Predict the 3D structure of the following.
Amino acid sequence: MARKPKPTGGMEPNNALNVEQMTEETGAQALARKLLQPTLKNAAAASAFMGKMMGNDLDLPGIGDYADHVHISARDAAEGDLAIASKILAAQAITLDSMFAELARRAANNLGDYISAAERYGRLALKAQSNCRATLETLAKLHQPREQTVRHVHVNEGGQAVIADQFHNHTGGAENVKSVNQSNATGPTSISGALLGKDAAGNRVPVSSRKREEEVPNARRHQSGCAKGEP
């Protein structure tokens, strides 16, 4: 699918659409897959907006040129390059700040005689200001190192709990930092006693319970089968 490009003084817009057809699909399926690609759809939308913005005074690139640029930017972003995202956020913040200034100026001009119009312009100005602040916050988070704490609790044989915190830095260049902290138990680790769970002499450790203790049966009642005089 291609349209005859319009000569533009040495610059020829690329309006061709190259469709790669797989062996297991028909031509219509291959075209549908191509048309539904995110890069092509967004390139078509961007070209439409640019056409409205620039008008007919400028010979604009073709749909293929837009698609190539969107494809390269999306590929770089998928590989971890956030330069395009940083540039877009910074540019949008400047635009939103310009909108706030203009809307605030109009609100001030209508404040004396047209209160309703001044109120509407004021609300729009505050919305632009809020969106500008949110955009700048997103831009700041984009360049801040993200830190994640992973806590591992290790219980040794003697019952001493050791808590290991691992801080994972997501900047890509810093190494992980590991710190080991003791639990709330007092005293050095080497002399800390084992947790109650078993007596060294083999006796069971009593465990508290909410149940009432049952009465112990009289031992004399069960001595009928024993010889008289035996304990």
Summary: Residues 115-143 form the longest helix (29 residues). The first strand starts at residue 147 and ends at 155. The chain has a mean pLDDT of 76.
